[in-house]
User: What shape does this take?
Amino acid sequence: MITRVSKYTFTDVMTLKGFSYKGSVALFDYLEHLEDDLGEQIEFDPIAFASEWYEYKTLEEVAHDFGEEYGDLDYLSQTTTTIEFENGILVLNF
Assistant: This one.
């Protein structure tokens, strides 16, 4: 059983999990598009989302956590799923 979650509810919960508002909106939009592409619903699991996705303000922060080569957006995007948004980037845990 899956309950439909509004963007407001999603962003409200995800900001409590440490994501910025803009990062939460970007993740919500990405997941909605993914649902459309897959033709199936994705369960709203904020704990899983918070452990699967990292939010960064800059690529330098990504490089600091994962290594210098990950500071290049092309390389990072080839390695894992990334979501760019105003003032940040979301990176799927890999």
